[in-house]
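Whether sequence alone determines local backbone shape is best considered at the level of individual chains. The sequence in question and its structure tokens are set out directly beneath this paragraph.

***
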Amino acid sequence: MMCIFYDSHFMLNVMTEQPQRATSVSLCWRQSRLKPADKRRVSPQQEPMKDSSVPSCPQRAQPAGKRRNLEFEPLSTTALILEDRPSNLPAKSTEETQRHKLEYEEMVAGAKRRELKEAQRKKRQMKERHRQEDSISNAMVTWNTEILPHWDSMCGTRRVRELWWQGLPPSVRGRVWSLAIGNELNITPELYEIFLSRAKEKWRSYSETSSVNDSESDGGASLADRESSLDLIKLDISRTFPSLFIFQKGGPYHDLLHSVLGAYTCYRPDIGYVQGMSFIAAVLILNLEEAEAFITFANLLNKPCQMAFFRVDHELMLKYFAAFEIFFEENLPRLFSHFQTNSLTPDLYLIDWIFTLYSKSLPLDVACRVWDVFCRDGEESLFRTGLGILRLYEDVLLQMDFIHIAQFLTRLPEDLQSHTLFNAMASTHMISRNRRWAQVFSALMKDGNKEADKNTSPALRS
């Protein structure tokens, strides 16, 4: 019995002493690793409980004047360069200590310079933002009080065109677009409601019979019928401005966009739904009421250039490409030659730009500026915008091959600024041999296919 009692007592002492030793070692290690700045940041609740049974860690005396009254206390490991080495390592020499002090001071000075530079940048940004807000506010007053009430007599004046080029205030943008595009089709809000009700009925019957049609269909349905289907519209809506999260399922504009696109497929069954329409409709919905957005959407797609592309009129599209390349060669001869060398035809990048009016390729705010000028100048501005993009990135594109050029132009940089693009567009001259865009295009139409055949794209031939 005494032996058992002695063994148990001995094991208990061993078990109680081991955690104390571990705690002592752990505390000593943590305290030796803390910098003075770290110790000040430890809250009372985080301080370890002092135990008289735990031996305290030996503290080294701090050299006089070391790290005192520092104006800049970094939150990183920058100041570790000033620390003495652990006692088990050779101490720093005086020269090394002085060198480390100079290095630390240079790091602190560099950090301060960066902070000052960042503060100055933010100050400039804020100043520019205030200037833009004042400019937009003044322009909004001008548009609302002087221009819009007298639209017919004012819209073509030089002053209004200059204001237009500078960008429309967001509060009047939708109304100006609507007036500029017009309503040649004489669509009324009541007519929109009629086609919307037809679309809803069509979708109901489609959902009821989709399983039967899927099993019986032999693939003979027309292209318009296939592309006006609910499935394709739903799929395209989900991919429309996905970063905004407002047109996707459950978003505030999902049903609205669905309604406008569905009504249009019933209004123009000969065209149906074509991929890319959702981006145009979405931009209009962001700036106009539902019925007005539909009216503007239908009239916009009825313009000759948009009709040629959405009907996939190959012959007419080739003439647009031929006209574009005439101005491309005159404005950017080096890049034009580089594209020719790499067999890069306009359809590889222009189709996507024209189909969505740049709303998919450019940042939304920049795309809206492009739309402003499109409503002012018509189809010419679309190709001028394309030349502006090519001019802006000419030096980059000259270093790329076919694959990289196509990828770059499909997905333009997200940091593209409107003022840089419009400066490039302003430097682009839409005059060829004393002929403007409309005259060049008209001449190509009269000449038939001779000019277009020279620029026939393999993609369009297929």
